Known about the structure:
By secondary structure, this protein is α+β, with helices and mostly antiparallel strands. Helix 2 (52-64) runs antiparallel to helix 3 and helix 7 (239-250) packs across helix 8 (254-269). Mean pLDDT is 89; it is low at 164-175. The chain has a single domain (8-309), classed as Glutamine Phosphoribosylpyrophosphate, subunit 1, domain 1 (4-Layer Sandwich). The protein has helices at 25-47, 52-64, 109-119, 127-136, 150-159, 231-236, 239-250, 254-269; strands at residues 8-16, 85-91, 97-103, 124-126, 178-183, 189-195, 216-218, 223-229, 273-279, 284-285, 292-299, 305-309. The longest helix has 23 residues, at 25-47. The chain is globular. Helix content is 32%, strand content 23%. An eight-stranded mixed sheet has the order 4-3-2-6-5-1-11-12. Strands 7-8-9-10 form a four-stranded antiparallel sheet. The record marks 176-177 as: Cleavage. Keywords: Autocatalytic cleavage, Hydrolase, Protease.
Amino acid sequence: xxxxxxxxxxxxxxxxxxxxxxxxxxxxxxxxxxxxxxxxxxxxxxxxxxxxxxxxxxxxxxxxxxxxxxxxxxxxxxxxxxxxxxxxxxxxxxxxxxxxxxxxxxxxxxxxxxxxxxxxxxxxxxxxxxxxxxxxxxxxxxxxxxxxxxxxxxxxxxxxxxxxxxxxxxxxxxxxxxxxxxxxxxxxxxxxxxxxxxxxxxxxxxxxxxxxxxxxxxxxxxxxxxxxxxxxxxxxxxxxxxxxxxxxxxxxxxxxxxxxxxxxxxxxxxxxxxxxxxxxxxxxxxxxxxxxxxxxxxxxxxxxxxxxxxx
Length: 311
């Protein structure tokens, strides 16, 4: 499949009830700045000739380190008042993947997922076993207070005595699952996703982000996809892999496949969210069925794009 651009990059920071009326001008500017900074990190890597895998990891690390987003440092509280984080990364060239779920105190879960991919014979590690693997790999850990912010604590306090869980980006104070996809100059694709899940989620709950084929997928023959939204629906619909399949077996373009899954299939079942994707030709798609999605893209030779709202 001939490429039309040397390299492409796209990222997201969550999808949900995100409107101009619920973001102050300062919050709007802060989110755009964080998204642009992460784009610049990935663009520099791709422009320098490094791999898509390196680019998506670095982009997600940048977003994990930003407390605005529900991943890494910005992760929300679960029902026990703890932070349990999930992440995955996948290489489109080899179909190699690494994923972790339910990890605590790991500074950058996406780096742990990358270590699982490159330093183990496994794909998916969880909880204490994943944390022990992180220690053996020398990855940095942080104390609980590193992951604490007043906004997320207030969210949890409002729900902690109930059986209700909350999509973190469905209320006025918004934080989002993060992810990135890339096509590098060698024609290889990669995807990575990281999240803290849902506020007041049951402890040990796992969403779609670390599930290969549901929230994260990459295949050089088709596309790379990173999802965000109500994870249970994305798992049931195997969203990321479904887009790849529609391209491979039905001949749909990336935009056609992504729109069909996000704007039709998910909507029929009540699944809210969106995704970012890039094809083997460098085409970028960023569809969502919610009121907004923190997102950005940068295609070689073009100006970078950062957007939030549904317009």
